Amino acid sequence: MNKSDLRKLIRNKRRRLPLAERRRAARQLLCQLHQSSRFLAARRVALYLANDGEIDPQFVIDDLQQRGKQVLLPVLHPLKSGQLSFVRLHKNTVMRRNRYGISEPDFRHGQRVNPRFISVICLPLVAFDEQGNRLGMGGGYYDRSLAFSHQSGQKPDLIGCAYEFQQVPQLPAEAWDIPLHAIATNGRFRQF
Ligand SMILES: Nc1nc2c(c(=O)[nH]1)N(C=O)[C@@H](CNc1ccc(C(=O)N[C@@H](CCC(=O)O)C(=O)O)cc1)CN2
Ligand SMILES: Nc1ncnc2c1ncn2[C@@H]1O[C@H](COP(=O)(O)OP(=O)(O)OP(=O)(O)O)[C@@H](O)[C@H]1O
């Protein structure tokens, strides 16, 4: 199956999931992330706001904020097309909707943090395989914005977040793909 058909299939399945199952999976995601000592120790964590049926990290965001951690969200860069910035989420953060209808902190008002200085980045994904390859929505945003992690130096831990059913046997690995360090689902925490 090609990437575009695979995206359609899994995105449809994700959107059809009943609300009760979504909520249960969202709680299980928090439990699975708590398996990771690096996640528990992280001071700064980037997450996302669920869109298109994605597993919902809202309980994870609440938990981090209660534990006094810094939470960041991705924002489409208004000038550098295809790039994400990471902006801090506070109680008073001014939010707006981006071109895909996803709520994000306002780029101009927000406090941006260079992704090199983020401890853990939780990435949304459409499909993953057992090697930790990731298939996203197809915009290449995370691949472009995290391309620096191919080089040496300080880098964030990259944890993909998904439903267990989003695993596929094998994804074609592209040169620009950023390999994930771990995947947290409703059922498991896999480390690579
Ligand atoms: N929750 C969440 N936030 C995120 C991402 C994500 O995957 N999930 N992104 C991860 O990169 C970035 C946004 N990327 C996205 C890329 C495509 C579509 C999307 O729905 N595309 C439509 C076509 C829309 C159009 O071109 O007008 C589609 O495929 O149906 C959404 C988000 C930043 N924020
Ligand atoms: N580092 C990069 N520099 C320039 N272009 C890139 C880079 N990474 C990815 N791209 C481009 O982005 C496009 C989309 O890539 P791909 O289909 O792998 O996205 P994705 O990982 O599914 O999406 P996303 O990261 O937004 O969730 C590709 O056509 C690719 O050429």
UniProtKB/TrEMBL annotation:
Cofactors required: Mg(2+)
Q: Which domain of life, per UniProt?
A: Bacteria
Question: Which reaction(s) are listed as its catalytic activity?
Answer: (6S)-5-formyl-5,6,7,8-tetrahydrofolate + ATP = (6R)-5,10-methenyltetrahydrofolate + ADP + phosphate
- Recite the UniProt keywords alphabetically: ATP-binding, Ligase, Magnesium, Metal-binding, Nucleotide-binding
Record has Nucleotide-binding as a keyword: yes
EC number(s) reported in the record: 6.3.3.2
Its transmembrane ranges are none
**What is the protein name given in its UniProt record?**
5-formyltetrahydrofolate cyclo-ligase
Task: Give the species.
Answer: Bacterioplanoides pacificum
